[in-house]
Amino acid sequence: DGGITQSPKYLFRKEGQNVTLSCEQNLNHDAMYWYRQDPGQGLRLIYYSQIVNDFQKGDIAEGYSVSREKKESFPLTVTSAQKNPTAFYLCASSRSSGGPYTGELFFGEGSRLTVL
Amino acid sequence: AQSVTQLDSQVPVFEEAPVELRCNYSSSVSVYLFWYVQYPNQGLQLLLKYLSGSTLVKSINGFEAEFNKSQTSFHLRKPSVHISDTAEYFCAVSDAPTGGGNKLTFGTGTQLKVEL
């Protein structure tokens, strides 16, 4: 089945450690996104990528880094510079070319990061 | 800059009663509007969307929303809720896509709790 796979589903980290969250999609979508979700704050955009080897900062990029070396993959690294990394992280993708605009984002099931 | 306001953080309702989840947006350009639903510890799924045409849009499971440009609203309604509708609902807005991709701005979410 086509979709987005995020791993791991749960992750624990000690303060000062970098962690990388995986996001893989087989929908052949050009655009991919990382959102952070905190209770009562909705979803906030961290980074997005519209094409391979290119990405842009979202609203809360500080303390995070990404890469887009392949169309299918958009990993997110939470660095030690992120002061409050405990959150639920959601990866999404969308079609950006080849057809009428649909506007829909397709989401993975999320990764819950807890800093101990 | 776009923004989305969901004034109600929680909405309790009895099963088979009607419900309305409110959403107001601000944007200086033409907008596309969305409602997403999130079940516990899962990603978001598209519930319905307004791109153009009829201002009343419907989902397959009985929800509907009406785009009201003069009031800048996109409220979600269902005439009779079921226990399985218990979830968090997010309103989102996007302006016209620019060169690919689809950045959405999300509201803070409304937790719908259906009680027997």
Radius of gyration of chain A: 14 Å
Q: Count the DSSP helices of chain B.
A: 0
Specify the helix fraction band of chain A: under 10%
List how many beta strands of chain A DSSP finds.
Answer: 11
Shape of chain A: globular
* Mean of pLDDT of chain A: 92
Shape of chain B: globular
| SSE-based structural type of chain B | mainly beta
List the uncertain runs of chain B. none
> What is the overall number of helices of chain A?
0
> Regions of chain A with pLDDT < 50 over 5+ consecutive residues?
none
Task: Please provide a brief summary of the model.
The complex is a heterodimer of chains A (116) and B (116). Chain A has 116 residues and is mainly beta. Chain A is built from no helices and eleven strands.
What report would you give on this structure?
The complex is a heterodimer of chains A (about 120) and B (about 120). Chain A has about 120 residues and is mainly beta. Chain A has no helices and eleven strands. Chain A has strands at about 5, 10-15, 20-25, 30-40, 40-50, 55, 65, 75-80, 85-95, 105, 110-115. In chain A, the strands form two sheets. In chain A, strands 2, 4, 5, 6, 9, 10 and 11 form a seven-stranded mixed beta sheet that branches. Chain A has a four-stranded antiparallel beta sheet with strand order 1-3-8-7, with no helix packed on it. Chain A is globular. The termini of chain A are far apart. The relative contact order of chain A is 0.33. The model of chain A has no long low-confidence stretch (mean pLDDT about 90). Chain B is an all-beta fold and about 120 residues long. Chain B contains no helices and twelve strands. Chain B has strands at about 5, 10-15, 20, 25, 30-40, 45-50, 55-60, 65-70, 75-80, 85-95, 105, 110-115. The termini of chain B are far apart. The mean pLDDT of chain B is about 90. The interface of A and B includes residues 35, 48, 103 and 110 of A.
